[in-house]
Each structure stands twice: as C-alpha cells, then as structure tokens.
Amino acid sequence: MDDPDLRRRLADFSLLDAPGHLLRRNHQRSYEIFARHVGDDVTRQQIALLIALAKKPGASQRDLVDATGIDKSTLKEMLGRMVAREWVTRERDPEDNRAWTMRITPGGEALLGERIAAVSAAQREILSPLSEADRRDFLRCLRVLIGHED
Asked: Domains of the chain: which residue ranges?
C-alpha cells in the first residue's frame, strides 16, 4: 500500500468495532438460523406480516409498515406475492376507496400455526450466546436504534 494516510487510517479501523459491519454479520447469522428452523419457503418478512395481520385483521398498508418496518413499495410487492399464495386477502377499504385492508387467510393462519414454534425457537437461538440480562439489554438497545425506546 503506497498511501501512508490510508495505511494510518486503516490501522485505526477495526471491523469488529464497526456497528454496520457487525449488524450485517448478525443479519446473516439470523437469516441462517431462521432458515434452518423455519425453512426457506417463507421469509422472515412474510412471517412478520402474517403475525401483524393475525394481531390486527383488516390492517391498512400504513398499519403494516408501522408494525413491521417494511417500506411501502416492498410491502406492496410482498403482499401481491402473499395474495397469490393465498396467505393474505386484500380488499378496498370501505371507508376510503383509495386504501386497502388486508387479512390473513385460513391458509396463512395454518402456515403461521405450523411455523410459529420454529420462529420462536430461532429467536431463542439468535440470543442464546447472551446471558438473560444481556438479552434484555440487547433487545432494548435494538429497539432504541429503530426508534422504539421503552
């Protein structure tokens, strides 16, 4: 390396102290754990949407964005695929013809019923290297980072 300034800056930089790098690696780890427990025929985001709809039947797209953090355009595409798989129904809101409401279907409920124990097991495994106190702190910190402070 010919640039002494870059060499100095790199000497002061550690990937293991870089939050973005650590979050990416943990994202990959959580994906692998989820796929092993739940399977690869349903995504983490689809499960999140099914959970949100099971908890709030008739939710609007805005409700689902708020509940899941999935951006509106991605959500719209995902819902289209989930409607095609008959996990979700989408209807015009009777109070606002410009808006849609979504409901989980019996097929979506069956899928969620079959997989929720595995989803919970994956969440437990993700946190398993941490002590109970560290788990609470870690989850609190993650909520703070996304703007959902306790």
From this structure: 43-145
From the list 119, 57, 114, the residue with the least C-alpha distance to 91 is 57
Q: What are phi and psi of 4, to 5 degrees?
A: -65, -30
pLDDT computed for residue 4 by the predictor: 86
Q: pLDDT tens across 58-72, in order?
A: 999 999 999 999 999
Helix (H, G, I), strand (E, B) or coil at 130: coil
21-64 pLDDT tens trace: 999 999 999 999 999 999 999 999 999 999 999 999 999 999 99
- CA 31 to chain centroid: 10
Rounded to 10°, the helix 61-68/44-55 angle is: 120
For residue 91, give the 3-state DSSP assignment.
strand
* Residue pLDDT, tens place only, 93-133: 888 888 889 999 999 999 999 999 999 999 999 999 999 99
Distance of alpha carbon 67 from alpha carbon 82, whole angstroms: 17
pTM of the model: 0.88
| CATH number for region 43-145 | 1.10.10.10
CA-nearest of 91, 116, 94, 112 to 103 is: 91
